[in-house]
Amino acid sequence: MVEHKRIGILTSGGDCAGLNPVIRAAVYRAVGTYNWEVFGIRQATQGLMQRPPKAIKLELEKIDPLLTAGGTILGTTNKGDPFAFPMPDGTILDRSEEIIEGYHLLELNALIGIGGDGSLAILRKVAQQGNLNLVGIPKTIDNDVSCTELSIGFNTAVKIATEALDRLHFTAASHSRVMILEVMGRDAGHIALNAGIAGGADVILIPEIPYKTERICEYIRKRQDLGKNYSLVIVAEAVRTENGEFVTTNDSFGQSRFGGIGQYLAHRISGCSGAETRVTVLGHIQRGGTPSPTDRIIASAFGVAAVDLIAEEKYDHMVAWQNRQVFSVPIVDAIAKYRAVDLNDTLVKTARSIGICLGD
Ligand code: F6P
Fold it and tell me: Which residues make Cβ contacts (< 8 Å) with residue 303, sequence separation at least 6?
């Protein structure tokens, strides 16, 4: 018999498809199986800083529509590190104690944090400081959390990028153009590599493999010689210029964001291959919309497993997907370093073996 608990759940960092199905599964397990109470905390840790803390009780009867809903009903943010929180008057405050107090005001016994490596690192630091019972669930379209083959949101993002390539294929062929698709992924090339193979890209550029524009052009010219009048290039946003610089823009808060490598490459590729180029930046479309079946499946498995970790009082752990099974790993191992594309990865070998140019 598992004793009664009151648990909190929050989503932190950039949203992605699959967050709502995790919340649904966690409520099914916690309320349906164990008869616990679950509180959904609004806007990541910011809900715990508010007074009274901003949270809603999640009811079993109302959660079914969450399976197919994109985004997160709880809201999220990827701004405002609680240890250096920017206040409206311009000062920077450490608000971690407010989060700990919010957890106690809600009388929580445990907290499920759904986040990427950055969010999980922050949540763990707060949990250690306040002796809070934390369990983590990995989510990010970038798929760069260590110790798990899949993070929630990645599969949907790959599906969307693949569909974009499928569409670009026809217009590229019709106009004899080189079409460049710029995708997200931060420092990791998982989206570009996976979607590139699935969507029949001719060139895949990822941050982990330095490229030479001349190599890309040689490859495009060879295709032209074979009568292939068009090419598809997929490039991850954190691919650098040939001088090794990131291409970024500043957002409205003055924060630097990746963006623009596609345009940089377009000029250089048309310069050395003579081909007409066009650029599509897929952006946040990769994060929105209905979760794919795979994301719904791992979200359901993760939601259940996270609640079971709490039932076992196995805290400071994150659920992870390995060989089609859910495991748990210490959060500290999952956040130790980000998971880049391994150059010995089967998919790198596969791409090369089916004639895709990786730019090197
Ligand atoms: O980490 C997820 C991610 O979508 C990255 O791939 C991308 O660089 C970043 O977030 C975009 O962040 P924002 O939503 O703040 O523009």
Answer: 21, 22, 23, 24, 25, 26, 27, 28, 29, 137
- 29-55 confidence digits (pLDDT tens): 999 999 999 999 999 999 999 999 999
**Tokens 């670009």 map to which residue?**
168
Q: Are 275 and 213 in contact (CB under 8 A)?
A: no
Cβ atoms < 10 Å from Cβ of 37: 19
Distance 188 CA to ligand 1 centre (A): 12
Dihedrals phi, psi of 326, to nearest 5 degrees = -95, 130
| Cis peptide upstream of residue 82 (ω within 30 degrees of 0) | no
Question: Can you say whether the dihedral through the CA atoms of 131, 133, 137, 139 is positive or negative?
Answer: negative
* pLDDT tens track for 277-310: 999 999 999 998 899 999 999 999 999 999 999 9
pLDDT given for residue 252 in this prediction: 83
| Dist. CA 187 → ligand 1 center (Å) | 11
Closest residue to atom 13 of ligand 1, CA basis: 14
Query: Is any atom of ligand 1 closer than 6 Å to the C-beta of 17?
Result: no
Question: Which parts of 161-258 are beta strand (E)?
Answer: 177-183, 203-205, 231-236, 248-250, 256-258
Judge whether 251 counts as a catalytic residue.
no
Distance CA 346, CA 340 (A): 14
pLDDT tens for 99-140 read 999 999 999 999 999 999 999 999 999 999 999 999 999 999
What pLDDT is attached to residue 253? 82
Q: Specify the ligand 1 atom closest to the Cα of 238.
A: 8
H/E stretch holding 169: helix 154-175
**What domains does the chain contain, in order, with CATH numbers?**
6-152+291-334 (3.40.50.450), 156-287 (3.40.50.460)
Q: What percent of the chain has pLDDT over 90?
A: 96
